[in-house]
Amino acid sequence: MRFTTPFLALLSLASLSPVLRAQHQHDALTEQQLGTVHFPISCDPRVQKQFERGVALLHSFAFDTAEATFRHVAQDDPHCAMAHWGIATTFSRWAGPDDKQRKSGWEEIRIAKSLQAATARERDYIAAEATVYAHPEKKDAKRGEKYLKGMEKLYRRYPDDHEAAAFYALALEESDRDDDPTHAERKQAAPILEKLFVIEPQHPGVAHYLIHTYDVPEMAELGLPAARRYAKIAPAAPHALHMPSHIFARLGMWQEDIDSNLASIAASRNAAATHMGDEGHQYHAMEFLMYAYLQSGREEQARELMDEVKGLPKMKSMYGIEADPQVLAEVCYAASYVLELHDWTNASELPLTPGTELGDDSITYLARSIGEAQTGHADRARQEVSKIEFLHKQVLEKKLPWADWVDHQREEAEAWADYAEGKNEDAIRLMRKRADAQVSGVFAAQGDLPAREMLADMLLGTKRPEEALREYDAQLKISPRRFDSLYGAGKAAEIMNKPEKAASYYRQLLEGCENGNSTRSELAHAREVISTVALKWRGSAR
């Protein structure tokens, strides 16, 4: 909608409706705020810059604001097929479109096709996107594969089209499986993006997709250049400010992780103030922030964040789903806090959070089961397992897509109940199964602990320090500088009578917490061991 009357032109921004204020904000966003995109289309030349602004927002996963921008393009040029391509792309977010989003996306694709874009290139873009939404009423597990082929066709057919290259690389990365140790698709995507990174250093999608491509343990260090640049490319996009923390967290760079997510949260709240629709991104940033606080000895800040979340206004999830992100955040943060601090007594007494979605209470039940097992209450640990089993049956009956996740929670809880009952081999076997399934690592507060770390804890508790140390080391390869894995490894080394080795783990632990104010007993013990080793070394040197 444009300001077409003298009366509207005289209105101040403060007096405009929320919709018009949002559109004003979209128009005000510049390349310095979103990055630079070159995506020529055959629509009215007056909408070219606006369309490219929408694509820049899309590259930074600002889906709601991108959708509003593309709709503005469609209003200004009703014959612009690519405006409807743009709207459709905004429905395919995160884990892919749900049933409602597929129907909406297909309607936009139908409009785009009916407008008969003037160039073959534009028609190819529309055809590739159509594979995501065609026959929206059907369950088609091959939609991603079809889209990848469509984008490969675009990439090969238009070698000078940097947008096609960037979107194709993203499709490759999204087709990669975490359990594939070769990461063949990521390794195909990386050189495409690295080449573009040199040619278009201010392109938001290139930096963003490089971070995603390298977001696995064995490739994370390669993502540092993109991580350090992306926030500077698109400082107005909340997700652009958050994404570098994926690499920082993978490398245990806690201060950089914290700074990145604090900036993202601030940008998300500014988006809320300007009615840009991306305020829900702050919850994703807070998941990472909470985790980083707990790894770096900042329990006070973690508690403050938990209190802050409770006071936030209601907002839409960034995933475009109906679930309330505030409730899930409260559940996850409360469980993460007690588990990461090994506060087993409070874990066993963790209260349920009102308003949860069906299945989410399994997070609380799992935390309770771990707390009960660690404090020697086998019967109560087993009762928590039964509660998760009941939830799992309900989730299955309703055919909800997260049934497997709930069952994984049950398996971990059952392993801890076995452990509490003295069935150590059963416990270790079941927890090893879960550990082997977790190959990528988690760097957000999701109300759980890494399964391999819990396996190591069980081995240490059953007086098998050598095996425990191997598992702690394996976890540290996935999650460098993780507080509890470093401390567990140090304890295992101490039990093995290797004080120098223990001290090396403890030094890393203290380095990770150097900016914190924690009074955790683990840190005091670490300092004591390091001091003892240092005194012994100085004595032998004399």
Description of the molecule:
- This protein has 542 residues and is an all-alpha fold.
- The chain contains 29 helices and no strands.
- It has helices spanning 6-9, 18-28, 31-34, 48-59, 63-76, 81-89, 99-114, 120-133, 143-157, 162-175, 184-199, 204-213, 224-233, 238-242, 244-250, 254-273, 281-295, 299-310, 325-340, 344-348, 361-374, 378-397, 403-420, 424-437, 451-461, 465-478, 483-495, 499-512, 521-541.
- The longest helix has 21 residues, at 521-541.
Class from secondary-structure proportions: mainly alpha
Q: pLDDT under 50 segments (min length 5)?
A: 1-26
| Count of alpha and pi helical runs | 29
Bin the strand percentage: under 5%
Rg computed from alpha carbons, rounded to a whole number of angstroms = 25 Å
Straight-line distance between termini: 82 Å
Task: Tell me the helix content.
Answer: 55-70%
Give the overall pLDDT as a whole number.
Answer: 91
Tally of DSSP β-strands: 0
Shape: globular
The helix/strand series, from N terminus to C terminus, equals HHHHHHHHHHHHHHHHHHHHHHHHHHHHH
- Largest sheet: number of strands, sense, barrel closure: none
